[in-house]
Design a protein that fits this description.
Layout: E1 4-7, H1 23-34, E2 38-42, H2 47-54, E3 62-65, E4 70-73, E5 76-80, H3 85-96, E6 102-106, E7 111-114, H4 118-128, E8 132-135, E9 147-151, H5 157-167, E10 172-175, E11 180-184, H6 190-200, E12 208-212, H7 218-222, E13 227-230, E14 243-245, H8 248-253
Parallel strand pairs: 1-2, 1-12, 2-3, 7-8, 12-13, 13-14
Antiparallel strand pairs: 3-4, 4-5, 6-7, 6-9, 9-11, 10-11
């Protein structure tokens, strides 16, 4: 019996660049709750941003945010990951030397973009709707570092290979959509965050169902035998899932 559903957002519940959930999602979640099925939103997005997306149901679900670097259940942090500041600063300096790489620094409370990067700031503030602040220099921030993200508006694959080769032995690097890739703590991923929430609820992996489309979802997909990769997933992600689907909502309806 399924007792928990965890779904990625961008490319999974949010399709074709959408920044708002479909009305059907807000009909299905209360129906799941009535059947005793808990919902977890699992995303590379900021915690505050995900909560806004799910209003007015934001207090009825759990969250795996920042690709597992900040996991919240019933208003309490159940798992987290931090990046060593020296390593974060090294990545920031390396990204500055690469063409077309824009930097986003995530802390528990907000994220930061360096002054002068108007395109990224506008995208984060007005399109994605994050809590974002401009900073003079990301390497001088006092805030804890949950994640460093690099955006390449021409496609993440243009820059990802360079950083993977340079840093994969020191930090976890995952693609997080078509234009993003993230650096996160080695102990942080969506699967670890989901496991912490499932443990708090005394739910076994075989009682969970997961959905995802990118390589930041693979640990979550591998967590349970009831996993679905989206038909539009990044090449190879389907190998980590038991099934494929074109619609999360369609699969959820079969449980009701």
């Amino acid at each position: 019996m399924i007792r928990l559903i965890a779904s990625d957002l961008d490319g999974t519940l949010l399709k074709n660049g959408a920044q708002a959930l479909s009305p059907e999602v807000f009909e299905l979640l209360p129906a799941l709750r009535k059947k005793g099925i808990h919902f977890v939103a699992a995303s590379g997005r900021q915690y505050a941003n995900i909560r806004r997306l799910f209003a007015p149901l934001q207090d009825e679900i759990s969250y795996v945010a920042e690709n597992g670097s900040l996991c919240m259940h019933e208003g309490k942090m159940v798992a987290s990951g931090q990046i060593d500041r020296d390593l974060a600063n090294e990545i920031i300096l390396a990204a500055r030397r690469q063409p077309d790489c824009s930097l986003l620094y995530s802390s528990p409370e907000k994220c930061y973009v360096e002054k002068g990067n108007d395109r990224l700031y506008d995208h984060i503030k007005n399109h994605v709707h994050y809590d974002v602040e401009l900073a003079d220099d990301l390497t001088q921030l006092d805030a804890l570092c949950l994640k460093v993200a690099i955006c390449n508006f021409d496609g993440a694959d243009r820059s990802f290979g360079y950083f993977r080769e340079k840093y994969q032995d020191r930090i976890k690097i995952v693609t997080s959509g078509n234009i993003w890739f993230d650096f996160i703590a080695p102990n942080a991923d969506k699967g670890t965050g989901l496991a912490a929430i499932a443990s708090a609820l005394e739910i076994r992996p075989e009682e969970c169902m997961t959905f995802g489309d990118q390589y930041n979802d693979i640990e979550m997909l591998a967590f349970t035998p009831n996993s679905y990769a989206m038909d539009t997933c990044a090449k190879g992600v389907e190998r980590y899932a038991a099934h494929q689907t074109s619609s999360v909502e369609e699969v959820i309806r079969t449980l009701l």
